Amino acid sequence: MTEVTQNIKIPASWKELVSAEFEKPYFKELTAKVKKEYLSSSVFPHPSKIFRAFDYFDPKDTKVVILGQDPYHTPGVAHGLSFSTESTNPVPPSLQNIFKEIELEYGINSARGGSASGGKNPDLTRWAKQGVLLLNASLTVKAGLANSHADYGWHLFTDAVIKALSEKHEHIVFMLWGAFAAKKEIEIDSTRHNILKAPHPSPLSAHRGFLGCNHFKLANEYLKQHGRGEIDWK
Fold this sequence. Notes:
Helix content: 25-40%
Strand content: 5-15%
Strand order of the largest sheet: 3-2-5-6
Low-confidence stretches: 1-6, 110-117
Number of helices: 8
Distance between the termini: 42 Å
């Protein structure tokens, strides 16, 4: 095992899933670039949370994958889970629309409990603990510069995660929101999994079809049909 592999703070089951990636030149270059940026400028999330999305369950227990683009680039917001932030923060705009869609589908107020967020808790750890992989395509970002680490090699790594989940496991729901996420469909075997596509929940596009997509109920229907247990989105 190389020094690079040993230094990756990711659970053993996930490390095994994509073990070959850690030995490839791109990943070693990625590690060096990201380490240099953390030492020279503001980068999010905190280094201890880069691989946080993988902390809550083994690959075989993945029920849903929700793919984001990259971490929030505003200080104090990103914490290693796509679309999510700490419960003490306001609900980010895209997550507001995600909660709104859940309310539309279930006819109730969703995600109660965040004191600084109008009664809705923007910390989606509760979803992660149920088998929802809240994965960003890039796992780091420079402060104030959205998508600034997209060309560092993260996409090669997260594409490998998606492809490995598709090939080695069954009956996962992949939620692909927006044109960027939709491009990842090529990595997923639609005969083994359920792919749900919609416009991005951003305020700029949510009204074009995200609101009313019914993805959360559709996901639970699929999971129930295959004996995998439903997600409590509320």
